[in-house]
Design brief:
Layout lengths: L4 H5 L2 E6 L5 E7 L3 E8 L2 H4 L7 H23 L8 E7 L3 H18 L3 E5 H7 L11 E6 L4 E8 L2 E7 L5 H11 L6 H9 L23 H13 L7 H27 L3 E5 L6 H14 L2 E3 L10 H13 L24
Parallel strand pairs: 1-4, 4-5, 6-9, 9-10
Antiparallel strand pairs: 1-2, 2-3, 6-7, 7-8
Helix pairs in contact: 3-4, 5-11, 6-7, 6-8, 6-9, 7-9, 8-9, 9-10
């Protein structure tokens, strides 16, 4: 599809994300100008369970999807008919949650005769950087979230090669489970980040998985080591800050070393950090220091674009629009959707 420069600059994409427990919608103009970005969190609902309850999440999405989209439209001062397209997360994620967003986007597309764009949630996270920066291709992307921990070589929009991934728990999942062990509550990432500031990261020598000859990650052994330590030393309550700080140091050591190795191996001097865990202050500090040591160009999205949001889906949808990659009414969500697979229904 040929699109003029003027038309590209004025494209209005509605991005919808219901991949997990946040109901999110945003309007982005020209692929980078955020006109509105609305996120409704379900943290209060799931916190008492120590994690996300999928059935509760999908039911809440049903209640919130139209009000959230309506607020995004109102904030951007546009009507549905003014939109150029509707972009929605197809996967990966919780299937019940994804279904709500996809069905709503399909209905909106049909009623207002708008092009429908299916977006991979992981591609959305990577594209979040383009809402504030313009890294040159190729670059190395470190994706760190509650459900994913991966390293990609990104050669262009839509061109990804996975270099490494977690073999078990994602880093964010490990944070949540360790926080639950320590009685910190949910979500674990922000609270451990905060409590770790008062602890000694060298107090406990927790293991770092060394998967030789690979850029993969493994955090299940670290998680178990923390649990065993807590059970072995019941008086740990006195210095939970040290446990949290030592655990966090182990996670960050591995993340920073793996992405640095990937960049050096690929001969690429640009690194992009994305995903919910990229909001972690200690990780941002350490990777910034390492990037300076290695003379890398580092791109960190602002905190409000690290976690799930509709703006990143709209940004990814913008580039799919330019490539003429649209979905049909046969689009269905997919809980498992490796990055690089073409969206269904094209």
């Amino acid at each position: 599809m040929g699109v003029s420069v003027d038309a590209v600059e004025n494209l209005l994409i509605l991005g919808i994300d219901t991949s997990c427990d946040d109901t999110a919608a945003a309007i982005v103009k020209g692929g980078s100008r955020i006109l509105s970005n609305v996120v409704s969190s379900q943290e209060a609902i799931h916190s008492k369970y120590g994690g996300i309850v999928p059935e509760l999440a999908s039911r809440r999405h049903m209640e919130l999807i139209w009000p959230v989209v309506g607020e995004a439209l109102k904030g951007a001062r546009v009507r549905p008919g003014d939109l150029s397209a509707v972009a929605v997360t197809e996967g990966p994620g919780l299937i019940g949650s994804l279904l709500i967003g996809v069905c709503f986007a399909k209905a909106l597309s049909y009623v207002y005769d708008l092009p429908l764009i299916a977006v991979n949630h992981l591609e959305g996270h990577i594209n979040s950087v383009f809402l504030t920066d313009r890294p040159e291709f190729p670059f190395i992307a470190l994706m760190v979230s509650g459900g994913h921990t991966s390293i990609y070589r990104v050669d262009d929009f839509g061109q990804y090669r996975e270099l490494g991934r977690t073999r078990d728990d994602a880093a964010g999942e490990a944070y949540d489970k360790v926080a639950k062990f320590l009685g910190f509550g949910y979500p674990g990432g922000p609270v451990i980040d905060r409590i770790s500031a008062g602890g000694d990261p060298a107090a406990i020598a927790f293991p770092r998985a060394d998967l030789r000859g690979s850029l993969d990650f493994s955090f299940s052994g670290l998680k178990t080591a923390v649990l065993n330590y807590v059970r072995r030393f019941p008086d740990v309550n006195v210095r939970k800050e040290d446990v949290a700080a030592s655990f966090q140091a182990a996670v960050i050591d591995v993340l920073v070393e793996r992405v640095t190795e990937a960049a050096l191996t690929e001969g690429i001097k640009r690194i992009v950090l994305s995903g919910g865990v990229s909001a972690n202050s200690a990780l941002r500090k350490r990777i910034t220091e390492r990037a300076e040591d290695e003379c890398f160009d580092l791109y960190l999205p602002p905190l409000n674009l690290c976690t799930d949001n509709g703006a990143m889906i709209a940004a990814a949808g913008f580039h799919l629009f330019r490539q003429g990659r649209f979905a049909s009414a046969a689009l269905n969500p997919r809980a498992c959707l490796p990055l690089g697979q073409h969206p269904a229904g094209l």
